[in-house]
Amino acid sequence: MDASKVAAVPRFLYGTAWKEEDTRRCVVAAIEAGFRGIDTANQRVHYHEVAVGEALADLYGRGVVSRQDLFLQTKFTPRGGQDHRLPYDEAAPLKQQVAQSFSSSLGHLGTDFVDSYVLHGPTNPARLSTADWDIWRAIEELHRAGQTRYVGVSNVNLDQLRALCEGADVRPHFVQNRCFARRRWDADIRALCRDYGITYQAFSLLTANGEIARNPAFAQIVKRSGMTPPQVVFSFALALGMLPLTGTTKEAHMRDDLACTGEELDPDDLDALETIATPSVGL
Ligand SMILES: NC(=O)c1ccc[n+]([C@@H]2O[C@H](COP(=O)([O-])OP(=O)(O)OC[C@H]3O[C@@H](n4cnc5c(N)ncnc54)[C@H](OP(=O)(O)O)[C@@H]3O)[C@@H](O)[C@H]2O)c1
Question: Of the candidates 65, 14, 74, 67, which has an alpha carbon nearest to the alpha carbon of residue 40?
């Protein structure tokens, strides 16, 4: 891969989960709306990576974008997160499972490298297991071989992330987590990310935080800002230095989301939003 011909890490990622037969249309619409970062996974139960690749082929064919304009991120999903449609031989050693899943993703996406390759989640919910380390070492090898520009980890807790950062030869460049407002927007993990120079990717910013929509202080911020409620959340996330994901299926919402720069809210509103759902600290 030629470093002068790769996309910068975008401000926003378009997420492709749960779209099934609508995946191709959504990805085409998202790129046409202006998204340049795509998040997917070789996990057929939640993602349709083949259809993401079909959308990309359509866009390349029509000259809308080329591969070098895009930041493509996909994931290795261990056996526990998969159904029967596995992209690897489950009897093979984990190192081979990662290689098989990765190679299958390259085929699905029609590329010879990805911009980011993410461990979808540790196999043990509490700590990093031997299996997790085997998987991570295999992901590191892909990075060393130049097949993925960045590596990342998803659905991690604080102890797991600290252990990974301390023991990795190639530290994660990204953490992708569900971002709960009631945990001060995953403040502990974000602080550790800052210490290690990791970019925090936030998913479920809207769907995990329905309670803030009912908060009068949030309604006031929405009114004052002139933005929609989702735009307030995304602008806040951007202002905090997060890389947000959105998986909206609507073109109008895609444009709304992309219009956020992170500079729309004033400092008092940003302070208020940080603790808006934190018990006993909130407004
Ligand atoms: N690593 C993991 O384990 C993991 C887990 C979950 C998700 N993800 C990634 O994150 C992506 C996003 O998932 P998500 O959980 O954040 O949920 P999402 O798929 O982005 O869902 C957002 C919901 O909010 C609605 N919405 C309303 N107004 C919106 C607006 N202006 N902008 C955006 N949405 C609006 C959407 O409906 P409309 O379609 O009608 O707009 C949709 O129902 C996924 O596609 C996937 O790539 C990763």
Answer: 74
CATH architecture of 3-274: Alpha-Beta Barrel (3.20)
| Domain range list for the chain | 3-274
Residue 74: which residues within 8 A CB-CB, separation 6 or more? Answer: 39, 40, 41, 42, 49, 105, 109, 114, 116, 117, 118
Compute, in angstroms, the gap from residue 114 CA to the centroid of ligand 1. Answer: 22
Atom 20 (ligand 1) nearest CA? 247
C-alpha 186/C-alpha 48 separation (Å) is 28
246 CB near ligand 1 (under 6 Å)? yes
* Of 135, 231, 117, 130, the residue nearest 174 (C-alpha): 117
Q: Say if residues 277 and 188 touch (Cβ distance below 8 Å).
A: no
Pocket test for ligand 1, best of 253, 254, 255, 257 (most atoms within 8 A of CB): 253
Digit-coded pLDDT (tens) for 150-163: 999 999 999 999 99
Q: Is the minimum distance from the CB of 230 to ligand 1 under 6 angstroms?
A: yes
pTM: 0.97
Q: Cβ distance 117 to 151 under 8 Å?
A: yes
Predicted local distance difference test score (pLDDT) of residue 280: 58
Strand 243-246 vs strand 199-203: parallel, antiparallel, or unpaired? parallel
140 CA distance to ligand 1 middle (Å): 29
Rounded to 10 degrees, the C-alpha dihedral 106/108/114/120 comes to -100
Residue 207's nearest CA partner among 1, 50, 5, 17 is 17
**64-114: per-residue pLDDT in tens?**
999 999 999 999 999 999 999 999 999 999 999 999 999 999 999 999 999
